[in-house]
Design goal:
By secondary structure, this protein is mostly helical. The protein has helices at residues 7-17, 22-29, 33-41, 60-68, 78-89, 97-100, 103-113, 119-126, 130-137, 152-155, 160-171. The protein contains 11 helices and no strands. Helix 1 packs antiparallel against helix 2 (22-29).
């Protein structure tokens, strides 16, 4: 299943600007229904809504179709889905500067949740180096005290399928 680029931001926009059910929004964004309810209940959110129509991830007709039929599900536009498939097949790519500071937090998240992965596997996944991964694992990294643990999947630094592949290799 393909999901929009910024699922929580997209969910917030859909909550505020459509009459879609939480279940429909959760299904489209790849979130749990309770996450969508939490986003809706938050009075002041740090998340800024992202219009999926302007980003060409959805069409207005698709939203209207699902608003009239509660059992219908939103479908990501084909060109976005194809672009996501192309991006998951390629190896090491460019990491935007805004996400580079979160790389150490992503490495720490992977090490805490999947300690069976080797330093090399984590380094390849996160586009980092073995010494950096080793220093984070050993808690000797120069900025270890200030690293914020963040899921690299949520940030888009690594795809969930690539992480699952590495976990399957480690289990063998």
């Amino acid at each position: 299943m393909n999901y929009p680029y910024m699922p929580k931001s997209t969910a917030l926009w859909l909550i505020e600007n459509t009459s879609l059910s939480f279940e429909q929004i959760a299904d489209f964004c790849g979130l749990h229904e309770l996450e969508v309810k939490t986003i809706a209940d938050a009075e002041r959110s740090k998340i800024q809504g992202l219009n999926p129509v302007l980003n060409k991830q959805l069409t207005a007709e698709e939203i209207q179709r699902c608003e009239t039929d509660p059992s219908a599900r939103l479908v990501l536009r084909e060109n976005v889905a194809q672009a996501q498939k192309r991006n998951t097949k390629k190896g090491v790519g460019y990491t935007p500067q805004i996400h580079r500071q979160n790389r150490a937090g992503g490495i720490l998240w992977i090490l805490k949740n999947y300690p069976e992965l080797t330093d090399g596997q984590v380094a390849r996944l996160m586009r980092s180096t073995n010494p950096t991964v080793a220093s984070i694992r050993n808690k000797t990294h120069k900025n270890y005290a200030s690293i914020q643990i963040v899921s690299p999947i949520v940030l888009g630094l690594v795809s969930e399928s690539a992480l699952q592949e590495q976990i399957a290799k480690a289990k063998k």
